[in-house]
Amino acid sequence: MKEMQKITSFTIDHLKLLTGLYVSRKDRVGDEVVTTFDLRITRPNTEPVIDNPAIHALEHLGATFLRNHDEWKDRVIYFGPMGCRTGFYLLLAGDLSSGDIFDLVKEMFLFIAGFDAPIPGASPKDCGNYLDMNLPMARYYAKKYLSEVLNEKKAERLTYPE
User: Fold this and answer.
1) 19 close to 148: Cβ distance less than 8 angstroms
2) Distance (Å, whole) CA 143 – CA 111
3) CA 152 → CA 67, 70, 77, 149, 162, distances in Å?
4) pLDDT, tens digit, for every residue of 86-145?
5) Residues 23-61, buried b or exposed e (16+ Cβ, 10 A)?
6) Structure pTM?
7) Both ends of the chain: CA-CA distance in Å?
8) Fewer C-beta within 10 Å: the chain N or C terminus?
């Protein structure tokens, strides 16, 4: 078997990585560019990971918000958690930077932080694990991310560390 190349996300120094809003990669699909963003909510290998019920609630709320956003809904390809449970990937059509979507992501996390209603899609008909959600913890992580990353644009939170 030939030696496999290390994928891009494994080349980031996770020991230096802060919570932030980063461009993870850009891919071409035909003539279109797809930008993958790394929404890093907890600091890898330093803070506890996001528990499953909170990450599941964040996913339902974030995906619902994005796919209903008047300006961005037609550019959303995917929003979902990282396997390591330290954040989310957001894939958008277009050649974009963290600055281009900063306001969108801030708006989404303000929506989650203030959400106080039944979680969209949290029913046995709509979701394969509908009972495994924790709205109070989703709001906690949204407020944490707003405080650390989105309340003020800082270069070290928008560009991967060297």
Assistant:
1) yes
2) 10
3) 25, 24, 27, 7, 21
4) 999 999 999 999 999 999 999 999 999 999 999 999 999 999 999 999 999 999 999 999
5) bbeeeeeeeeebbbbbbbbbbbeeeebbeebbbbbbbbb
6) 0.94
7) 32
8) N
